[in-house]
Amino acid sequence: MRKALYILADLDDRDIAWLSETGVVRSVAEGELLIREGAVIDQLYIVIDGELEVVVGDGKRVAELVAGDIVGEMSLIEKRPPAASVRSMSEAKVLAVPQVAIRHRLAKDTAFAARFYRALAVFLSDRLRSTVATFGYGKPGAESRQQALERENELDEVVLDTLHVAGDRMRRLVAMLEGRSK
To answer: What is the DSSP-derived secondary structure letter of residue 162?
Structure first.
């Protein structure tokens, strides 16, 4: 859930309520592909429950996703098909938020746009730092996969300052979704 903290920490309570109202909870069966590499997607997904994996090419796992993680953000930004597939490792639930709805809100609500784009910038910056550290940016002795995973699990000061806020927002989002389904 560490990556989702970047996004949830920057959004406010109205944004969380909007995500809850706009998105649709979708069940994903074990082994089902949520996102297929190269196939256009039109949703941003927030993992609500379960475990998914990000796989590339020949099925090599490059990441695992759990409750609170977000996928589909790159296709939202650049409208290109995903470079990886996302497959469920267990029964899972995701909140699927239509990209068109997000783009519409970004266009009409500048305060939301500022929060959302800042959150994505921090999120993607962290991902790029992880990639550079893993591959060593052309330097010998690149970080091992184990070192990369250990660093992935470390939280920086920005996230630590807002950890309780982001966690609380995730809990409220899940509660709103559960209340909606009753």
So the answer is: H
By the 8 A CB rule, do 53 and 37 touch?
no
What's the start-to-end Cα distance of the chain, in Å? 26
Residue 71 identity = V
Please write the tens of the pLDDT for every residue from 60-86.
Answer: 888 888 888 889 998 888 888 999 999
Query: Which of left, alpha, beta for 140 (phi over 0: left; psi -120 to 50: alpha)?
Result: beta
pTM: 0.78
pLDDT at position 50 is 94
**Dihedral angle of Cα 30, 96, 36, 28, to the nearest 10 degrees:** 10
* Separation of alpha carbons 114 and 22, rounded Å: 19
Identify any residues that bridge with 46 across adjacent strands, giving them in sequence order.
Answer: 70, 95
- Residues 18, 24, 30, 31: is their CA dihedral positive or negative? negative
Residue ranges and CATH numbers for the domains of the chain are: 2-180 (2.60.120.10)
Q: Is the distance from CB of 52 to CB of 34 less than 8 angstroms?
A: yes
